[in-house]
Amino acid sequence: MDHDFKTKLAAERERVEDLFEYEGCKVGRGTYGHVYKAKRKDGKDEKEYALKQIEGTGISMSACREIAVMYIREEHLMRFSLIFNCLASMKG
């Protein structure tokens, strides 16, 4: 892939750490990675979010199925909001 294109893409991509405060707020570990309690940095709302970091360089089929389940609207399930593709690992 073209180096200039990759650099431009990285500069334009939203980063989870720019939008959410979550450092030091690890609440658990699931099958595919770590879960953090997060709040929006922009103050648009006071909601608490569950931020899930999926480990690894690729996403397995079972991880894809888990992501698909997050789109289900059900009162007993957390609502899916955003997904980020991060090259560097998150801290927590």
UniProtKB/TrEMBL annotation:
Q: Which organism is it from?
A: Cyprinus carpio
SUPFAM superfamilies the record matches: Protein kinase-like (PK-like)
Q: Which residues bind ATP?
A: K52
Q: Which UniProt keywords apply?
A: ATP-binding, Nucleotide-binding
What is this protein identified as? Cyclin-dependent kinase 19
InterPro entries reported in the protein's UniProt record: Kinase-like_dom_sf, Protein_kinase_ATP_BS
Q: Which PROSITE patterns match?
A: PROTEIN_KINASE_ATP
Q: Which Gene3D superfamilies match?
A: Phosphorylase Kinase, domain 1 (3.30.200.20)
